[in-house]
Amino acid sequence: MHNTVRFILAGQVEEVHYCEATRTVLEFLREDKGLKGTKEGCAEGDCGACTVVIGELHDGGIRYRAINSCIQFLPTLDGKQLLSVEDLAPDDNHAMTELHAVQQAMLDQHGSQCGFCTPGFVMSLFAMYHNEPERDVERSEIDLGLAGNLCRCTGYAPIVRAAEQALEADRKDRFTDDEKHSVELLKSIQPAEMLVIKSENGAFYAPRSINELCDLLEKKPQATMVAGATDVGLWITKQNRQLDTVIYLGAVTELKQIEEDGNYLHIGAAVSYTDATASVSTHYPAFLPLIERIGATQVRNAGTIGGNIANGSPIGDMPPGLIAIGARLVLRSSQGQRVIDLEDYFISYGKQNLQPGECVEQILLPLPPPEQIFATYKISKRLEQDISAVCGAFALQLNDGMIKHARVCFGGMAETPKRAAACEQALTGKSWSQDTISRAMLALPEDFTPLTDMRASKQYRMQVAQNLLQRFYLEHSATPYPIRLGVRNV
Amino acid sequence: MSDPKRTTRARQKIQKVFSSIAHDSARKHVSGKAFYVDDLPEPANLLHCYIGTSEFAHARVLSMDLSAVNAYPGVVRTITAADIPGANDISPVHLHDEPVLADKLVQFVGQPLFAVVAHNRSIARQAAQLAVVEYEELPAILDIETALAEKSFVLEPHVLQHGDSQSALSKAPNRLQGEVSIGGQDHFYLEGQISMALPQEDGDILVLTSSQHPSEVQQLVAGSLGKPANAVTVEVRRMGGAFGGKETQAAQWAIIAAVMADATNRPVKLRLDRDDDMRSTGKRHDFLIRYDVGFDAQGLILGIDFMHAVHCGMSADLSGPIADRAMFHSDNAYYLPNVSITSYRCKTNTVSNTAFRGFGGPQGIVGIERVIDAIAHRLGKDPLGIRKVNLYGQGMRNITPYKMMIKDNVLPELITELEASSDYLNRHRDIANFNQNSPVIKKGIALIPTKFGISFTTTFLNQAGALVHVYKDGSVHLNHGGTEMGQGLMIKIAQVVADVFQIDLDQVKITATNTGKVPNTSATAASAGTDMNGMAAKAAARKIKKRLIKFASNQFAVETSGIHFVDNYVQAGENEIGFAKLVEQAWMARISLSATGFYRTPKIHYNPQTSSGRPFLYFAYGAAVSEVEIDCLSGESRITRVDILYDAGQSLNPAIDIGQIEGGFIQGAGWLTSEQVWWDTNGHLRTHAPSTYKIPTCGDIPDIFNVKIWEKGKNREKTIHRSKAVGEPPLMLAISVHSAINQAIAGKLNEKSLPSLNTPATPEAILNCLYR
């Protein structure tokens, strides 16, 4: 057990001996360190004004990723490097010293107007600068990399030009030059034991193994488990809740693993979206465009598929697709493991099949059977970084023009992600034809009675749910005309 | 002392205006060193303030028990309406219809009832939740239709008439009626509302705030404290975005902080959380517009009636002039010989709507552009042709509904140029072909012009002041009444002043807007910030320059006509002296090196009784072609290409102006597509954070985005270097996006009447039209 959060800040080891479990990185920067360059725009991880970059040891080097500091808890930085906008041109003290390439590009291209979002954009660009520096960044990657940064002044055009200027191939900066030194520094602060930070109201625990975690959960079954804090963070910033005991899952080795056996892809519950994307989309390419629309880069760098499931949200984007492919869940406690079908995890709104002292350990994705066609679609008001009005997923096995097997699941249509039994029945054993699809569309009202809220009306939800099945059919038939809106191609 | 050098080289006048110079704060922006109010050093004894707000849309407050709030550890004190020493009033137009803190009656969900100060912000926020308020709920009016039916208005209805629309309508060979519902818009400035109030000696107060209108904040703070205006100083260095949302609505938070600071005799900071900011501050007005139009076989409008129902919320705020500007822009760019516009200013139990870039203009223009599209659809013609037929003439057909003669119409030429450069005709034909063979994805294209009147329609507001000091080392201190919200006002005015003195820009210090330096200013609004403050600053600089010329003339015994300021030097006949050197000598000769400048916009007048006059000095013009595609299964849409041609006159700073055009356009596109303001049936705003309220992201901008400033542009009027305003008008160019989406829907439906797509065109709104 160790009791000091240690991380690199401004090239030095920073030590925090005491803080609230839920003190945010943003509060630490602005209030404790007086570093006011990082801004609060929304305090919910949606605007990116608070973007900072986290450096972590990876493959012998350092991997830089952007996160939202407004909902990241300070003790989660243990063993990492924290970079804020002040780090990029640290000598720029009223003098005309050299800016970082991404800052210079923003200046050259008139990428700032009011300037409030600018430090966040700069940090997102900085993270992109260090991602595959040997090649040019494409326009669609700029969209992806900046989707989590809102700008209300510029209309983004000059920021895109700045990104194009700064993100040309063969990028190097003083962080690249100093990498060896930084790696040594990071190695020197890697925790060997569980971090425990006690505070007035409770404590923050960062167990390092699944056994440590289970022991803790047994002793503190009421503790709040946190992985990316992209949801729990808002309990603090928006609901003013105070959490006594927080157990951080991000240091548990077993929960960070991705493995594959002959039947399943095993994804540890604390694997971030970013880290899971490649494996998931190798087996299920249809998941890629969906994952790229879950939150935005900063959220996907912190948030986890495990969290998206464990919190039981009816509008999580991963569960419909995972349920459609028949994913399973490994639950773990000090009593051992149990494995359930993912669809059985969701009991009702706010109620999940999870016992006190138990945690989600792994998500099991069955490897796709032959002749499966699969898609998962998300409908929201905005393409990027929005919460689904409806999320629909379809996994069908075809054989000789017949639908051998059908699993259909929707989010946003009921109080939990839910399979469409009547629709599945209308599909199973029928011919793969427009006629069958039309009948199955008509069956959906038997399965769901959606609600009206600020994301969509019940009528729209039903109509679009039916149409998503139509889209699925058209996309998997030989249609001579376009089915989807074009993707960026310039 | 005097050591003039002989002129040894010919110096070139350096070009300070008409050049693309980076925003003065750009370097600070990118390095995180630009200070916003929350970044300023905090005094050691600072208290943090938070508000408690109403949970009901309309209710009597029977009792309010704050004992738990006061007892919460770390809380210092609370205040209610009773603790406001002066006027409990934030009405910007002296109607006394909106209090700082509600007393006995709440009129919208989120209306502030009390405030609390504590040692830190999270304690104040936690404590604010502990109030026990007993309400007696009253019937609430939440939407335009109900307000219309119950004649619930914040201001009397207003009618603007020109010609005889009734008779023209009855005689017209073709006639159409329709309506369009236009949604509101949250400003979503990235920096939320914030103020820090610092007690001074004698009970004076210094307020550091994020406001477009420091003078109004000063007046209202003084009023609420029962002090004279000279006891209150308000300073604004920069805002993290404003867009109209900090024109009147920054005052309330400044007042609460000031009253708290006065009550505790300690500095107090109040920063709203994003969700409370969105719940408790007003938005762009949503409108319901109905029309009845008569036209001939060519689509020429013969007569038209408009009904505007304007959703004002619980108080008037700026709704009067906003509704007026909507009426003034009901013509957009088109001659309406016989027109009647009736405007209802609806009162509801929702937050009071307020200024937002365009100030009613955009809604008025949506109305007439929908009419044009409907006429074109009826006649089976390309809407662009109908637009051209109806454009204001040059020298004829040029009287607006408010009887102002238009003398600067450049649209016929500008549209022709844009039509060619955007290849409109070919694309229009290709899209028709594409739509024939594509049942799921449909495309649409629209070319729409904008004409936007520049000046405050309230004539007396068109005044501005500036203060320029030249220090004896030749460096210049520049101050004026305009505020910086990201629009580049400060750099443009610095360019103007550097140009007057012919000195380098880094010699001109841009300073925070401060009511102690330039008094009685108008809001930085109506796109007129540069026009007005630029002229005032130029006047101040020229006063000093004139004194320097006179001094140099005496000093070097050269006629004043022989004195020239060129590239950091002053040439006096054959002599030449550095600017700083001349300044030093002038100081020693006891010449005043400080001056104020003042500007009042000439030529404008307006009589609200007769609805006629010249409310605008000039018009800003532009046009845009937008191409979109829609998915007829989901209703999703995407902007694929946009071409804009904008008349910025002689642009003072093309880079800054292009930024305003691109940014304004995308903000307008957001308003018309993804930005839905959604209230539930109890009057709770449910889109109160970026998680639920969706402004455009980087991925929403078009693949092809060609933005050009019109090369032939030159203001006919004597504005600052013959430039034109650029803040608001580009937003309205995005109406082309909405029209193009409606065209795409029409491409699917193939029906006799035009689809009636409302705004915003969310996927749901689009699918609604497709599945009517």
Structure write-up:
- The complex is a heterodimer of chains A (490) and B (772).
- Chain A is of the alpha+beta class and 490 residues long.
- Chain A folds into four domains: 5-188, Ubiquitin-like (UB roll) (Roll); 195-248, Uridine Diphospho-n-acetylenolpyruvylglucosamine Reductase, domain 2 (2-Layer Sandwich); 257-366, Uridine Diphospho-n-acetylenolpyruvylglucosamine Reductase, domain 3, CATH 3.30.465.10; 372-475, CO dehydrogenase flavoprotein, C-terminal domain (Enolase-like, domain 1).
- In chain A, 31% of the residues lie in helices and 22% in strands.
- Chain A has 17 helices and 20 strands.
- Chain A has helices at residues 25-32, 101-108, 118-129, 139-146, 157-166, 174-177, 179-188, 210-219, 232-237, 273-283, 287-291, 297-302, 305-310, 318-324, 421-427, 434-447, 458-475; strands at residues 5-9, 12-16, 51-58, 61-68, 81-83, 195-198, 203-206, 224-226, 245-248, 258-260, 264-268, 328-333, 336-341, 346-348, 351-352, 359-366, 372-379, 390-399, 402-411, 418-419.
- Chain A has a five-stranded mixed sheet.
- In chain A, helix 2 (101-108) packs across helix 5 and helix 16 (434-447) runs antiparallel to helix 17.
- The longest helix of chain A is centred in the C-terminal third of the chain and has 18 residues, at 458-475.
- The radius of gyration of chain A is 23 Å and the shape is globular.
- The model of chain A has no long low-confidence stretch (mean pLDDT 96).
- Chain B contains 20 helices and 30 strands.
- An eight-stranded mixed sheet of chain B has the order 4-6-2-13-10-11-12-21, with helices on both faces.
- The longest helix of chain B has 28 residues, at 529-556.
- The radius of gyration of chain B is 27 Å and the shape is globular.
- The chains are: A alpha+beta (490), B alpha+beta (772).
- At the A-B interface, helix 2, helix 3, helix 4, helix 5 and helix 17 of A face helix 1, helix 3, strand 28, strand 29 and helix 17 of B.
